[in-house]
Amino acid sequence: MSQSIPVLQAVLVDLLNLGLLGKQAHWNVQGPAFRPVHLQLDELVEQLISWQDEVAERITALGGHPDGRAATITGSQVVDLAAGPLRDSAVIAGFADRLTALSSSISGQFGAVEDDLPSQDVLIGIVAGLDKAAWFFRAQLA
Ligand SMILES: [Fe+2]
After folding, report:
1. CATH label, 4-141, candidates 3.20.20.70, 1.10.260.40, 1.20.1260.10, 3.30.720.10
2. How far is the CA of 22 from the centre of ligand 1 (A)?
3. Is the model's pLDDT at 30 over the cut of 90?
4. Could you please report the per-residue DSSP string of the chain?
């Protein structure tokens, strides 16, 4: 079995969790920037769903079985959100941080998939997108 599969599975779990947190924040954000942040979060979720599918189907293409069950997602390394209302400024800073952390985490796995360039290519593309999404949040903090 490909050594890339556990790497891709861990990425899948984090992408799934971040997608759930994106919706959680989309529903609970409050403050003067409500509307742009509310809309930006749905754009992010749409992008995350696309990456989830790309990673999961790469796992299947390698002969593995992607696991996106709720119980499995609890193993995600992405920092959780508190329940209840979320201040817009905290959502902006919090998602900039989460996106940057996930980008760093995935970048740290490039070497683990260096013998599987198609998987590495998938991860590189996701990291570039995460960095762009982090910038879109970070730019609002200037
Ligand atoms: Fe919505």
Report:
1. 1.20.1260.10
2. 10
3. yes
4. --THHHHHHHHHHHHHHHHHHHHHHHHHEESTTHHHHHHHHHHHHHHHHHHHHHHHHHHHHTT------HHHHTT--SPPPPSS-EEHHHHHHHHHHHHHHHHHHHHTTTGGGTT-HHHHHHHHHHHHHHHHHHHHHHGGG-
